Amino acid sequence: MNALLRLLSIPALIMSRLPGLAPVIRALSTSVGQKLLMAVSGLSLVGFLVVHLAGNLQLFAGEDVFNAYAEKLHSLGPILGIAETGLFAMFALHIGLALSTASMNRLARRTAYDVRESKQGLSVLPSGGASSWMMVTGCVIFVFLTSHILDMKLKMGPGVDYTAALDAAGEATNSFAAVKAVLSHPPHAALYLAGLFALGIHLSHGISSALQTLGLNHRNWNWLFRTAGVVTAWTIAVGFMSVVFWALNQS
Amino acid sequence: MSSDKLNLTLRVWRQSGPEDHGGFQTYKLSGVSTHMSFLEMLDVLNEKLIAEGEEPVAFDHDCREGICGMCSLMINGQAHGPDRGTTTCQLHMRRFTDGQTITIEPWRAVPFPVVRDLVVNRSAFDRVIQSGGYVSVNTGNAPDGNCIPVPSSTQETAMDAAACIGCGACVAACKNASAMLFVSAKVSQLATLPQGKAERSQRVVNMVAAMDREGFGSCTNTSECEAACPAEVSVSHIARLNREYSKAILFSDT
Lengths: 251, 254
Ligand code: HEM
Ligand code: SF4
Ligand code: FES
Hints:
The structure holds two protein chains of two kinds. Chain A is mainly α. Chain A has helices spanning 2-8, 10-17, 22-28, 31-56, 63-74, 78-107, 134-153, 175-183, 186-213, 222-250. Chain A is 70% helix and 0% strand. Chain A starts with a helix and ends with a helix. In chain B, α2 (123-130) packs antiparallel against α7 (200-214), α5 (180-191) crosses α9 (236-251) and α7 crosses α9. The termini of chain B are far apart. The chains are: A mainly alpha, B alpha+beta. Chains A and B meet through α4, α6 and α9 of A and β4, α7, α8 and α9 of B. Iron/sulfur cluster (SF4) is lined by residues 164-170, 181-182, 185, 229-231, 233 of chain B.
């Protein structure tokens, strides 16, 4: 654990040596600073998911509409590249901080309690409900994401038959057909549903947690923040799931 | 109530010193009055142990009226026992049933090392306070009443935060052993009042740094601290701590 913690602090150590950056790094590498960055990166990822879902729902409008949308996206060229790099950086930041804060938390208690009981009356899940499952659901999402990039971006999903998506030059450019090919492969559909289920749980704590971390807390509005967090979480998760079920029905 | 006497099985953590590995010892205690407080029950156990020539169980306590924050026991997995808004010394044996087994453990957190049995060293909290939990600018003589107007809602917020008795239950109950509720209570109490505003930026930065130096965990907004806090300090103070911290690192000169 100690070795892992030291390893994780290497990037921050290097950055803290860069001239001009040191005070920023110092301010953001405390427990509170790291949580602020986690909240910002997490909410940015949620923002991406909303846009991505809006794009995906165009599958329901048929092959032409969806492929036109995909075409337009790819025609953005360098802008798309910059956006993808930013997105990748957000994921790296979010996951890096998740590992760093989790090891900080693990190091803060070396001897476990023999008996443990929540005072919040949460009997279904261990104390904190979804908040105790952030690491587990995060890892499931990570596995899903890795597969997702392999399947959709690189068109290299293991066991997927991409023939329907090939163009005259033998390249898999038909996005509509590629999505159908991946999702009609049952093991992939199962992985996607599991990943999206994990995402729903992750965000049902994550969104309201991020708002609290960013300081949004008022006794009149807390119920709204919490409800909006859970509703947004499951709207995103179920929205994506609907695409999976649609594809399963198509084949 | 069928009877006001209980027969209990106590599983108590015994550890002869900081270096000892420690372990649970089981004791039978009969005829415990339901009117006793939890600490009085432990007094009775200790008298029995002394009479039998055994070492009494070491546990922390001082005021025994819920204000000093010394008593600190994990009772059946809950900080200060099963009641909300209650310290161990204010917990009564009527909350338990005849024949029950009660497991008693010390606070578990690396910054709170066990001194002996159920006693932990909480000077980590003192060092956090020393890093900024006070007002050091000269605010002059005590002003006349109402000279510095403070709206009553602000007074209430400050008072709710100042209710913290520094017991450490928030750390003990938190799955991350985070001290965020304690630190936020101290930061809030001063940041909301005029006398504390002058140093609010340095204070929050220094206290967060001190908290991290002691090795407390970070906050995952699980809110178990709020449920365990005998002074019912709200996690809204943690949101204020986060706001104070963001403001300090983004906008302050210091
Ligand atoms: C689409 C992907 C993801 C989104 C949209 C997302 C979103 C969020 C949000 C909004 C938060 C709350 C921020 C806070 O208050 O701390 C959060 C927290 C967290 N995330 Fe993610 N996340 C994603 C992927 C991941 C992955 C892949 C991992 C793990 C490898 C992960 C691990 C965590 C952990 C450990 C926390 C802290 C939990 C807590 O505050 O209790 N997340 N996430
Ligand atoms: S915030 Fe509550 S639980 Fe934490 S030290 Fe203060 S009184 Fe104890
Ligand atoms: S002994 Fe003082 S609060 Fe319990």
